TrEMBL record:
It is a multi-pass membrane protein. The chain crosses the membrane at residues 21-42, 48-66, 96-117, 124-145, 165-184, 216-235, 247-265, 285-311. It comes from the Bacteria. One of its GO terms (cellular component) is plasma membrane. InterPro entries: ABC_transp_permease. This is ABC transporter permease. Keywords: Cell membrane, Membrane, Transmembrane, Transmembrane helix. It comes from Candidatus Pullichristensenella excrementigallinarum. The lineage of its organism: Bacteria, Bacillati, Bacillota, Clostridia, Candidatus Pullichristensenella. Its main location: membrane. It is found in: Cell membrane.
Amino acid sequence: MQEKTNLSSANWKRTLSNITPLLETIVVFFIICLFNESFITAKNIQNVLLASAPMVVMASGYTLVILTGSIDLSNGTLLALTCVVTSFLMPEYGNLVLIPVILIGLVAGLVNGTLIVALKMPAFIVTLCTTQIWKCAALVISGGASKSIPKAAWIYLDWASETFLGIPLMFYAALVIWIFLVFIQKKTTIGRKIFAIGANEKAARMMGVRIKSTRIQAYLICSVSAALAGYMYALRLKSSTPTIGDSLNLLAVASVVLGGTWMSGGHGSVTRTLPASVTIMMLQIALKVVGLDAYYQEITFGLILIVAIIINSDHDRSSTIAVV
């Protein structure tokens, strides 16, 4: 009887953990609407979903690295780099620009993962350094200036803002990538190894998990996701700015943690990163609508991240069932 009660309690906790990010999205939406009734329009909802698409992709890939108990500070500037590359190459090559974008993501992930694993350097230091490398590359390519994609090339990117059933096509594209990453996390050996490393690296090593290769794979997925998000930002804005990624890494981490993933690793879900990403971007748009200065917006999201980390850190690993 006691065993059934414990199992029922565990199932209830798992269900609550899964729906909490969605409830957060709904609550935030209604709070925003209370203060600004004009926010409840189909156009605004479409804008939120369009703005959320790149963040969903970036944060979902980021979740896998954080699940290992590691971090990647270079995601934002990597996004800026591929955004710049997209705006420069799209007029001539159209959506074939996806090829160099993905290659850049693979190289970035390989560099980060190899330096961290092979040289045993702290992830914080490595990704802080590569943050500057990707940022400098974006500044060099762009000449430090914004670049608009010529109207003649809009035929390659107009699809992103078109809608189907009231939802932007780019958000559908983000959903496809998100579903793929959910599949990797839940249904593949890589996903199970990522969880094992984050939960207990020593135990994972004793079970035969290849720690080094798994960490590199997590960084590859994370960087390719950030690179694709940069491509999506270029499509959404029809332009690029080399400094666009300066604050996006904070938003991505906030999305992951708000979705219930522990910064210490071993607990969380790509599934819950989706509604959390939408919540974060909805808040950002709402703060812009009320005219809050960009610096105060960053303070707001920094506070949200701190609160989310405090809430998530109040746990006991020995008695908690990881949500997978």
